[in-house]
Give the backbone structure.
Amino acid sequence: MADLRMPDINSVIIVGNLIKDPAFRQTTTGVPVANFTIASNRKFKDNSGAIKEDVCFIGIVAWYKLAESCYENLRKGSAILVEGELQSRQWKTEDGFSRNTVEIKARRIQFLNHRDTHHEENSVFEHEPAAEPPEHAEPLHENESPGHKPDGDFGFGYRGIKI
């Protein structure tokens, strides 16, 4: 029997609202990075037929121009659509405890309720393909506080989403 090889797929698309303003900083080498958390809601009916809501909180990290665009344009409550990949990282706290997290490294972010008047609503900002986070960039810890596409097309048929 031939060896089966699993495809290397790590892709996430999710819609949510920021739970607080993005945290922005630059690494020691000057690379811009923004971290924020979104809440993604899911409504469903339970066994008795009552409508319930489940909320999932997801950490997002954006690099380079995408980070700058997020910091300049997003605020608590902003609705966004994120395309990216899952990544995990670990670090040690000041008191020596190991911590780890799983978050989404954003490739594209569509602002669904853009407030700025010089951009269209539903503006899309992308991570530049050649610009990957540097290997030596230090990770952000939990407590640390793009190019524009005018057509508003996310690329997966999500044109003009309204939440």
About this structure: The radius of gyration is 18 Å.
